[in-house]
Every structure is written in structure tokens, then in C-alpha cells.
Amino acid sequence: MLMEQLLHVQGGDFDTRDAPSDRTLLRSLYGRYRAMPNSLTDDQMALVYAALCTSRFAQIRVAISEGENLTLTDESREDITYYHKAYNALASWSRPSLVALWALFYLIPFSIGMGGPAETKDLLQQMAWQVKELGLHRRETASLYQPHDQVGALFSAFFYTEMWVGSRLC
């Protein structure tokens, strides 16, 4: 339910209709996560958890905006749990990968909405490291990726998110 909701979220900060993510990969990883979680690498687990975090956070925001009285504590909130699982999986992975970069991309909206400046800055620093290590910041190395990798969109997402967040933190 959460994953399907994420793949169809529309409106507000979480409008994913035009997001440059590879939904086929996300669907595949989520199916494997449900059937055989040990078959996923840490970066793949991080992407699944990050997508679930974003999806649950969007559900909570919609419920609150519709006037529902939610009695959730930080300990019981699924979005926070998924955030920590994604963050820890990325820490365990600690290697450059497009999948890890997508996971960070999905964690940023949660961090902006629920975290503080330090958490958001940390995620952006991790994204910058991924972008640099993957060579996405240089045309000659970024052009080596296949079109379906969507590295231009990923780099643009990082660049504009970093600029937007940076302008809000000043």
C-alpha cells in the first residue's frame, strides 16, 4: 500500500508524477524486499526504505491537513523508522552508486519536512559525495552512463535541491 501510494502521489511537495526516478527499479526492489529481503544490497534496501519513508510521511501530512487527529509519537511513526533504516543502510553501504543516490533523493523531502538543518545538510553532503564519486558533475563522465540511468535528472535534482535548501538555511 505505501509503495503504491508513493508511485501515485500527486500534489504538494510530494508530486512524483514527473519525478525522474526509475519506478520499474523501485517496483522490482520492493517486490524482492517483500519476498526475499536478504537478496537486496544495502543501497537497494536504503532505496526501498527511503521510498517507504517518503510515502508514509506524505500520508501523515495529508491526514493532518484533512483534520485527522493523529496520536503518533516519534517512536511509533513509521516514516521516522523507515528514515533511520534507510540512513543506516546507506551508512553500511558507504560506496558510490546510483541506487544510493536515488535513496538520498527520496530522503530529502522527509528531512526538509521533519528533520532540522543539520540532517538536511548531512544528506546533501552525502549526495554531493555520491555525485562526485559517480562523475555526474562532469559532462565527459556523466555522458558515459546509459540514458535510462537518468543521471542528468539526478544531478539537476541534487543541484537545485542544494541551492533551494541553501537559500532557506541562510
Stretches where pLDDT is under 50 for at least 5 consecutive residues are: 9-21
Find the structural class using helix and strand composition: mainly alpha
Distance between the termini: 38 Å
Q: With helices defined by DSSP (H or I, 4 residues minimum), what is the helix count?
A: 8
Order of SSEs = HHHHHHHH
Largest sheet: none
Rounded radius of gyration (Å): 16 Å
Count of domain modules: 1
DSSP strand count: 0
Helix content: 55-70%
- Kindly report the average pLDDT value: 84
Tell me the strand percentage band. Answer: under 5%
List the SSEs and their pairings.
Elements (H helix, E strand, L loop, with lengths): L1 H6 L15 H13 L6 H24 L12 H16 L4 H17 L2 H18 L4 H4 L8 H19 L1
Helix pairs in contact: 2-3, 3-4, 3-5, 4-5, 5-6, 5-8, 6-8
Keywords:
170 residues
Structure description:
This is Transcription factor domain-containing protein. The protein has 170 residues and is mostly helical. The protein has one domain (2-169). It contains 8 helices and no strands. It has helices spanning 2-7, 23-35, 42-65, 78-93, 98-114, 117-134, 139-142, 151-169. Helix 5 (98-114) runs parallel beside helix 8. The longest helix has 24 residues, at 42-65. The protein is globular and about 50 Å long.
Summarize it.
By secondary structure, the chain is an all-alpha fold. Helix content is 69%, strand content 0%. The chain has one domain (2-169).
